[in-house]
Amino acid sequence: MRRFFEILIPLFTWSLITLPVWLSPFHPAVAAYFIIVFNVYFFYKSLKTVILATVSYINIDKSRQVNWLAKARKIENFDRIKHFFIIPNYKEGYAKVKKTLENLAEQKYPVKNIYIVLALERSEGQEAVTRFQRLFRNFRHRFGGFYATYHVLKPGEEKGKASNEAYAARFVSQWVKKRKLDPLNILVTSCDADALMDPQYCSYLTTNYLLDQNGRYHFYAAPVVLYNNYWDLNFIIRLQTTISSILRMSMLSDRHSLIQISTYSMSLWLLESVDYWDVDIIPEDWHIFLQAFFKYGIKVRTVPVYLLCTRDGVRGKNLWDSFKSRYEQEKRWAWGVSDIPYALEKMFQSPQIPFLDKFFRLFGIIEGHILWPSSFFLLTLGASIPALVNPYFKRTVMGYVLPKVAGGILTLSVLFVLVIAYLDFQAKHRFMKKGEIKKFPYLVIQWVLFPLFSPIISAFLSSLPALESHTRLLLGKKLNYKVTQKI
């Protein structure tokens, strides 16, 4: 059944993209109405993104002003909560991981209750051991505990974050069991090697978890924004990472469809109850959510953490290398489409969960993955295709009006860039170093040029890599995990 869905979903994507081509010879008016409806829907989604991003920014600004540690100390069982940060890293530079650990050591939270697990791969050899030993010497006294696991890839496992983290999480479970601690009092954070958490993250998370009656079933996620090395990035990649960052901020306030991305937290109890991360997949964040959802139903949700988590943007050795790495990263993210066949199969294997609950949860996932590769083609090329394929249609009123209506809607959507630019600057300026504030004029120029470069960004750094992932799934060609270059 799963293979059937692996063919069906990307086949639907290709059918949607090519709809103006194969429908216009027979029903050009129907194709035209479809394109107009799609443009209107895109406008609605753009407006929604801007509104939700604004709401998220306001909430983030408010959260930064709260003393979360003081609030947490007033809650019963505060002293029992322990935080484990699992940091998977494969061939990551010592300096990068050191920076992440220094950031965690500065958490406004009792460091004796923060534990680090470096999830390493045995295949990296002595280099991984040496990196851990250097980090251990520098940080062993700055946390409650500092450990390393060395994962060995087994038959049936996929290379990547999921299999590595699952191995590390089992180590945490053994550690907790040996000390007879309650897994409900252990919060596990899946933390990327370049992720810099807000100093109040642990305090915020502890407060909200302890006050959350269903916290055991919940994931907790902060918006991951790519600001760490912003000014070191190529101009076009800077624009793309900015759009990606604002989009993630907007998703934070969309509570009904929010699913964690990249760096997130959950109770050890929840991890153990779903038997940790599945080890035969690549994108693990949405997948672990689906594992929990199909066991516990709508009790499972992702709770927003209104504090920023910053990561590195893609930076290669040169311009071409940067573009290739960014393309590969987007392709890997889009491989999350492989979660849909898994979810559709589970939909028929979980009668204990009401059908509508499953339908509405899956609809948001399917919608996002289908719009990802198709939007560029339908928005930029769709309105011109009916008249090219069917010359007679060009002489009709609809044929004359279609390009103008579609162009007008897209032009209105571009106006939202003003709001995005403002939110981006407000979110980014607190991460800027002293000398970087002088670069504000470059930000202005960047956004002025955005309409010119947005088609390039949308095509080559979003839709095409996503379409490749869909096509690979359709043809049954698995994606191989590649570590993204971030020099």
From TrEMBL:
The keyword Transmembrane helix applies. Residues 188-409 form the Glycosyltransferase 2-like domain. Gene3D superfamilies: Spore Coat Polysaccharide Biosynthesis Protein SpsA, Chain A. Keywords: Membrane, Transmembrane, Transmembrane helix. The chain crosses the membrane at residues 29-44, 370-393, 405-423, 444-467. SUPFAM superfamilies: Nucleotide-diphospho-sugar transferases. It holds the Pfam family Glyco_trans_2_3. The keyword Membrane applies. This is Glycosyltransferase 2-like domain-containing protein. It comes from Candidatus Roizmanbacteria bacterium RIFOXYA1_FULL_41_12.
